[in-house]
């Protein structure tokens, strides 16, 4: 026990101060502590243009900010179902060549008449599990859920004005029943919203089970492996998570040659080799580098950056038409984005959303369509660079400070 | 043609000015253009504490910066192979509750005596493909590569002082040979470095093939599907990409109860249910939410944020020991990180690396071990919250501005 | 052309005779041809206890049969939702040790009081694609499908008395709409049945599209990648294909020790290591060797043996209970089986189904539950052998003719 | 206890007699028992042309055989690295239309001049795990393995004349080290062989660890999740298991039209849609139905039928050449086959191997190349049927006894 006391005491001396406080004073206390511990001035990250109190729901123990370089890609012409506009897309990155390549792709797409996009659907899962003492009780519970779905929906309704329960499906794994609540979460990415709604419904279910006595619960948790939150899974990729968006463009042969500097047939041939080798690599999806614009836009616009993980799997497609032009499509089945809530209200991130015309309610589908357009542009630009053997040279030119 | 001329003219009027220029004047021109187009003041993102010229290799067409809120998690005690220290870890995020949960995990680990970590290995692939006119030539080429490996290695050596070629393996898909160059890239994440080295080697190979006349090339590209760059693939996840790091900790039962507020047996039981349901979901790896700290640290420290995609798949493991304590391990097979090159030299990002004692040469393995420790802490904290049914409440409390 | 004529002539001389004929005479002609070409007597495979005419729907160009050694495993006690019986399970195999291990597992399960099983659901997909000339037409088609679902269902109804259309869902990939028809196929495995139904519905859809003129079809096919037939896919594994069945058993500690020759804690510990390493291997599902009984029963009972491919992915689960006993469950989400149609009517295969009490209508769910019980038994037996370090010895003993 | 005694007694009465005996008498006893229990005559499966004693290493508790209908597909022209021949391929199946489609594919390939095939490599893994008490010991063990690899190889050599150890690689998951032994197993599929070799090596390792005292073992097992035996995993699919074989063919346009009844451009277009939708389905590999010939040949030739599971994932590829002809390739990375050992010595199965010229030593690579040719033929035939909208009709015609 002496050891534990000593450790606890040591820990006290190492703790960053002002836990739980949201003020400039608290922030300066933390900064001072870290400066002393590290001997660093921390001048850059120590400066902060935000009011600590305003970030109460975005971060705990604020110390400052890190400035990520920002460029704006565009014009991006998007003729979507939820947008028909010329858009400028803010991208935050520190990777040389990315913005240049995004711009090249956007130019090709603009000259091709723009990208047609469609945010097809939106859904977020939360999948609590109910463990029973045997399979027979699990079976009765599945029946019970079917019989009581109306009341479950009722509880969800009471918990949120924005979440819409699309379906409720039990998945049985032995005596555990994972109950997948599938929601539409409107313009929020929705992870927190659907947690609250599901929890409310589950509380009612648990009360009802306790009353019935027929199916005693052995264990319960609001979340296990079937929600797909922050994970790349076969289920998420095939069923969708967040916004499913698809986009297409027909690129005239001369645009491909002039802007993308590649023969159309060479570009499509490369895509076919890429596709076969992605399959051989066991790739989830078939894209070359859509994680790049997704990450850059997510950072700029206050998205949950961790969702770059599951959002960056998609299906790209190229076809050489008989007229010599190229048909391109891209499908992103799990683009987890929102235009309200989370980091979208942080001032600079909000500016970025505003610049895209994507801030606030009613904008999430437009936002998804714009991102799909950027992804298509980058795929085309990068594939063209690779297919025409300019990729290595371009990186040589634009990413010079690497220690090669 | 008239239509195309009109489109080209329209595009000219919509282009963001000062392409290819790296100066404050150019930046202001772009800002001015965007302000006019959007009618927005762009005061937040328009301010920028960096010198545009200094970001030449990190971004094109700089417009400003976006400030991402920063907290520092710690103390994190890491007893790794490449670090034995108490570390403070900067995390950039806009997601409420994340930093609090990371700190709770770090506290538990500290009180348990710290995390033992081992960055086992590091590797980056680049896999150009060589397409021949038939399988027979592909077969001869595979033989040829075996016979000429020494010279290929020689070309790689000339192209970089930092890249080390670990292996060279042909993968045959019909008449295409994908030649996987596997490198150790030192302290850089290495994508650009290995592109340069591979390109140099491939140029020599192509010259040699042209001279021999025996195996005429039908097509070539520096990169197809087998490199795994910016993609989650079965190959990358099982073979590794970037740094492979594993970490462990034994958590005394009372630490689990006091800090994580859960019974050890309940936590481990939950993990087992999670594990089964991750398997049922077809998850790549078995973790709950390591994408969170990976994204937060990547943004803070100038990593390639798009690599959150492939880096966030890992294997978490919990075991209830006979003495009632918990053994925990985490294995991250594809953590793509660097401490030199890319965004690691941007001033504020460099401050963050310095705060962790991870800036510059010789620090990448230490950096990876620290990240693994943070991931373990968050997994423990989140799983404990879920297993003890506090997760929904905690989010209710800390993520209040969502539109629920 | 001369070359082609020569090849065609050569081909004529090499063709196996009596194409398209179903008779003993035809069979003997083929046999004679092969004997002459090969110089082999083909006495074994040349003998055949079936009437060629009776195999008209099972094979073309019948030459004979191959006898696969058959054992019967049991007694297997299954207390399922669709079976409460002691069953003997015919297994066809040439792999030494398999039947012995299956029997050991069955004994353990019998002594534990039997296996509780539940065939939860059954579904087969067929997913034709409709390609349009642009995304906008694809979007209109999705709307049209929603508006005309009743008539589509009507066409399905007319095509089969057994297939039941559970859902109809469009999946959009660019301008292609893959229309997933999800059926319950009763006691048939159903691949052919749902092909016929879907084709009938699609013919009507195509006529309707031709009449409307509004959404001209660019291309159509009855099947592309989304049906999952004969393929392991993330979609199939998570959504299910064929019968989804789950089973459980509580094994008393002394049964584990006496029959499986392993300490319960050692067995469960091994399972946890297996589970973590399956995850690290990127395994689809988490089982050790269920492909073995699935293959052996499929061959014995006239199932489509190729479906061993997608059927053999499942989720096994073990838990050490506080009372020292072991809880085991197994979940097979895509067990493609039938008790009518296909090879189930071939005389000897039918005998095998009869022996299990699984021949004919109304038996498919019972059949699935029995297979799940066998899978659980083998998993337990093999894992026990491995966990107690007897696996290598057992194989040494029972698989002696290998060239080691 | 009374209950357990009663269960044990009940079990005794239900046991199939003559356990462990290999004789006709024993077989008849079992048959008699099953006839009595079931009331069935079991005339078909009860007859058996094999001598029970001769099947000692292939099956326990033999009861009889099940006859699977056999056809022979061919001529199949294979110009492989290990075969340059016209081959007749025995296929055992009960699925109508399969043999007809295989023959159509073989005809197309013959008229195209045959299939070029290359069995590139062969490897089988066995991956025992060594669990230590902490990560530090695991690290020392990895070092120790590197230092003692020569002696480990020595132990493998002593255990088998046929297995060749290709590589030895530790995979660290926390404090567990999974040691992947990668072998070439010659003409045997090799699962048992490599178990014996690995076990022998591990016994030596364990003795050495016990002597050193420095790295006490907490647990050991000969097999956990990293071997890929009987499982579809990302590791197996990308690294290979069994034989990796690739094959190609150029199909003249008129052969495609005459034999496959489809326009070349329509066939290739279909393949591209298939490829995109396989990717969207999260498919392991990109083939339509290679599990069919693999299963049919495996049953006919005494392969381990359970290996249909992992063997049936591959990468098919089609390309429309500028001359209007079609280039086709297929790559099977994990075809688990053998021509000695296991069921390959059972008389009728051996006849089938002999008919292919694939019986005995030195034939496994030839065998793999022949199978790849059949897979290519069926893919072409089925895809052509689907692409030209004849698939549903063909099944209507040839699979008539289904209960549609």
From TrEMBL, chains A, B, C, D:
Keywords: Oxidoreductase. The keyword Oxidoreductase applies. InterPro entries: HMG_CoA_Rdtase, HMG_CoA_Rdtase_cat_sf, HMG_CoA_Rdtase_CS, HMG_CoA_Rdtase_NAD(P)-bd_sf, HMG_CoA_Rdtase_sub-bd_dom_sf. Pfam families: HMG-CoA_red. It comes from the Bacteria. PROSITE patterns: HMG_COA_REDUCTASE_2, HMG_COA_REDUCTASE_4. PANTHER family: 3-HYDROXY-3-METHYLGLUTARYL-COENZYME A REDUCTASE (PTHR10572:SF24). Belongs to the HMG-CoA reductase family. This is Hydroxymethylglutaryl-CoA reductase (NADPH). It comes from Microbulbifer halophilus. The lineage of its organism: Bacteria, Pseudomonadati, Pseudomonadota, Gammaproteobacteria, Cellvibrionales.
